[in-house]
Amino acid sequence: MPHLKQMPKQNVGLDAGGPYSSKRARDSALLLLLALGLFLCWLLVRPFVPAITWALALVVIAHPFNLRLESIVRPSLPALLTVIIMAVILLAPGAFLAGRVIDEAHGTLSFIEQHANSHGMQQVADRLPLAGRVLDWIKPRFDPHQELQRVAGAVASQASALVSGSIRAIT
Q1: Which tens digit of pLDDT belongs to each residue from 36-88?
Q2: Phi and psi (nearest 5°) for 75?
Q3: Where are the domains positioned within the chain?
Q4: Using CA atoms, how far apart are residues 16 and 45, in angstroms rounded to an integer?
Q5: How far is the CA of 101 from the CAs of 60, 93, 97, in angstroms?
Q6: What are the CA-CA distances from residue 114 to residues 104, 144, 149, 166 (Å)?
Q7: How many CB atoms lie within 10 A of CB 82?
Q8: What pLDDT does residue 7 have?
Q9: How far is the C-alpha of 91 from the C-alpha of 86, rounded, in Å?
Q10: Rounded to whole angstroms, what are the CA distances from 141 to 43, 65, 111, 124?
């Protein structure tokens, strides 16, 4: 028999590198764990994305101003001035809107109070018997003037709490 060269043994087990090898299974499992970990990280970060986006936008806007101030005075003062100016720029529209909301609420409550005591409601009650019974039931239990004062006080306290909370958050 002629001398045959010995052929290397072919690996036929699970470690052969085929589609079901242990290395591929391990890599697939690690890839799945990585995807799960990235998904869980996204769930943690997602609530903060709007705040981070606004912070980055403010940095882009305020950075040139801060650089100009740093060229004029020492570094700590420009940082303080930049924070104060950005706070004023952000809080001024909010304070204006809060004032407008309070004015509109006051006007609306005055309108409601004026029309709640008018004869128009009595005319509706005279035309519609069910509305008359409902109105007769409500009158002794509901004082519109007192309720409107209570609502106006609640709106005013919420507006002041909003403004003071915004100022406290910035400082």
Answers
A1: 999 999 999 999 999 999 889 888 888 888 888 888 887 788 888 888 888 88
A2: -60, -30
A3: 21-72, 74-171
A4: 41
A5: 31, 12, 6
A6: 15, 10, 13, 35
A7: 19
A8: 56
A9: 8
A10: 50, 60, 21, 19
Helix (H) or strand (E) holding 32: helix 22-45
Q: Which two tokens stand for residue 110?
A: 């005055």
Instruction: Find, among 50, 165, 159, 151, the residue nearest to 109 by Cα.
Output: 151
- For 133-166, how does the pLDDT look when each residue is reduced to its tens digit (9 = 90+)? 887 787 777 776 777 778 777 777 776 776 666 6
Q: Which residue has the tokens 């529209």?
A: 93
0.70 exceeded by pTM: no
In whole angstroms, give the CA distance from residue 14 to residue 24.
10
